[in-house]
Design brief:
mainly alpha, 319 residues
Length: 319
């Protein structure tokens, strides 16, 4: 059962403040540990913030000992009404650097509000003085965070972290998206054009294309999501990778399927072939931009594969 803040005793308020500083320090430590490999400068910033929280905790310990002795009652933020419920962001791997910074700012704002309310509930002069000082320090924490960013996030460090961010974005979004787009754009060519040439009916070809695109999207989503959980490879959430891959696979197949809504067969085929050419060009450009593949080499690889599948579909449909 949660207690109202106004019902807390001074002993419980001090115990809660100690618990909050310990928890905040551990969270900053978790952020530093999670970001150490890919964002070392930001990790150093969080490590320094952790040390500041430890200093606050030690001063609160000393005040508590002087007034109430060695036994600290067990009371946590979740036992008191009014605290924001924190999502365990620090357990997420890989941890987003921007999400960690945003979470830290929210923690600082909440700490300020806590100490301001605590001062109003305490009558002991020494305790009020300490809580007022901690409130001022937490209020200045935003400025401190800015100073720490200037200290640790130098131009060189920012460049390195930007490179790490780009690499993570490629692993978590670009690669699964590109794999899906290639699969959807290429693998659905054979069944779509086979159905088109076999029936010479655009509606039947459209239905086959829709089925092939959606089916391939579902299959690729599960295949990517179940390939690994991202904890060791750093490739991010399997849910996100699966959704990205599945969506791009479906989109790749639908691109050259929609032209078959045109009733005139020859026009539909011409438009579909033009769309396929655009899709293969987009894939080549993405490989060139994000995978550091020379454009002509990327285009050759993609076009050869696409043409082979396309011809396979026409051959089977015409036989």
């Amino acid at each position: 059962m949660q207690k109202k803040f106004k019902d807390l005793t001074e002993k419980e308020i001090l115990a809660l403040a100690i618990q909050n500083e310990e928890e905040d320090g551990r969270i900053f430590g978790e952020f530093a540990d999670a970001l150490r490999e890919t964002y070392p400068a930001t990790a150093d910033m969080f490590e320094e913030m952790r040390k500041e929280e430890a200093d606050h905790r030690d001063r609160l310990f000393e005040q508590f000992r002087q007034r109430f002795g060695e036994h600290i009652p067990l009371i946590r933020r979740e036992n008191v009404k009014g605290f924001l419920q924190r999502k365990p962001l620090w357990l997420v791997r890989p941890l987003g650097v921007n999400a960690a910074r945003k979470h830290a700012r929210m923690m600082e704002m909440e700490a300020v509000r806590f100490y301001q309310r605590a001062v109003d509930r305490v009558s002991h002069v020494g305790t009020r003085e300490l809580l007022n000082k901690l409130a001022d320090e937490e209020r200045k924490h935003s400025e401190t965070a800015g100073t720490l960013e200037e200290k640790h996030l130098t131009e060189h460090a920012q460049a390195k972290e930007a490179e790490s961010h780009k690499r993570l974005f490629m692993l978590q979004v670009i690669q699964p998206g590109l794999a899906g787009l290639m699969d959807g754009s290429v693998s659905t060519l054979a069944p779509l054009f086979a159905a088109a040439y076999a029936s010479h009916r655009t509606w039947e070809a459209f239905l086959v294309g829709i089925a092939a695109s959606v089916g391939a999207g579902i299959s690729m989503a599960f295949a990517e999501g179940l390939s690994d959980d991202g904890s060791l490879t750093g490739r991010g959430s399997p849910w996100i990778r699966g959704i990205v891959t599945g969506a791009m696979t479906t989109a790749g197949g639908l691109g050259h399927t929609f032209p078959f809504l045109i009733k005139e067969f020859r026009i539909a085929m011409t438009v579909a072939i033009l769309v396929v050419a655009v899709e293969l060009g987009v894939i080549s450009w993405v490989r060139h931009k994000y995978m550091d593949t020379p454009f002509l080499q990327a285009a050759f690889q993609v076009v050869v594969g696409g043409v082979l599948v396309f011809l396979t579909g026409i051959f089977i449909g015409s036989s």
